[in-house]
Amino acid sequence: MTSTDEREMLRETVAALVAKHANPAAVRAAIESERGYDEALWQLLCEQVGAAALVVPEELGGAGGELADAAVVLQELGRALVPSPLLGTTLAELALLAADEPDAEALAALAEGTSIGALVLDPDFVVNGDIADVVVATAEGQLSRWNEFTAEPVTTMDLTRRLARLQPQQATALGTDPGLADTAAILLAAEQIGAAERCLALTVDYAKNRVQFGRPIGSFQALKHRMADLYVTVAAARAVVNDACEQPTPTNAATARLAATEAFNVVTAEGIQLHGGIAITWEHDMHLYFKRAHGSAQLLDPPREVLRRLESEVLTTP
Fold first, then answer.
1. What are the extents of the domains in the chain?
2. What does the alpha-carbon distance between residue 318 and residue 316 come to, in Å, rounded to a whole number?
3. Domain Acyl-CoA dehydrogenase/oxidase C-terminal spans what residues (predicted)?
4. Which one, of 12, 61, 21, lies nearest residue 43 by Cα?
């Protein structure tokens, strides 16, 4: 079990790497690169942090960590909108681990970061789909590994996360799905919270520095109230996500997904408005957060479907 101190050290290490290697200019360069992410930074994250090895047991070449450890890394990457193969790779590892006979060789390569993984929840929108070496799909409660497949890039609004449409050509049954959609929801929620916190910080900094009518706009009472409300929204969502990381039940996963999506959407919408016209210029990063928020909201099951499922579960619970 990872201690709180160890997890905080992990967070600080990732944050330092991101600060050094993933400033806004570097993120934009990664977006334009051939593979859609900074391969040098990915190598650093795998070698210095063991980012891709966190959920893999030590006996299979991993770090023997927990879901919350991977969530911490994704939260820090999300904070700077770092394009990364980590989400898809982590989910692919968890899928292989759920197999009746885990593929040790494939898991070791994924843990090293030399292979990239993808989990197919919706074949039309697969994270890492265009660069994946190991693809596992879940359908009707069963897992299958796609040994051969075709991949077609999908045009997305969120430039920081590439998606692809995959079709299987040859597949092998692996076993029962342990609930990977819920795990994906928790990890994505952690990433959303990191981005929401950073987006709020950018908005607060802008309000402190933008002068209107001879005063920083952040000094106006109406804006103070709006930013205080945003802070409460993000803090509450983060607490819900943290609970889901520690106790990854289906109910907690759905609650975390809804809370993080709502917080990120609200913060980016307010951030766009409070920044004024500069927020929608290509040079400013605020529009990238706005696009990530809306892209993430639709990446897995849309919030309306998650809410419907959660309501059903609550109503049937004795």
1. 4-178, 181-315
2. 6
3. 185-294
4. 21
User: Residue 290, Cα to own-chain centre: how many angstroms?
Assistant: 15
Q: Cα dihedral sign for 47, 48, 54, 60?
A: positive
User: Does CATH place domain 181-315 in 1.20.140.10?
Assistant: yes
To the question of pTM greater than 0.85 for the whole model, the response is: yes
Residue with tokens 């943290």: 242
At the topology level of CATH, where does 4-178 sit?
Butyryl-Coa Dehydrogenase, subunit A; domain 1 (1.10.540)
Per-residue pLDDT at 317: 59
**Taking the CB of residue 222, how many other CB atoms lie within 10 A of it?**
8
pLDDT at 303: 77
The set of residues, in sequence order, having a beta carbon less than 8 Å from that of 70 and lying 6+ positions away, is 51, 54, 55, 86, 90, 187
More confident residue, 98 or 209: 98
In angstroms, the CA 240 to CA 301 distance is 19
Per DSSP bridges, beta strands 142-154 and 211-212 are unpaired
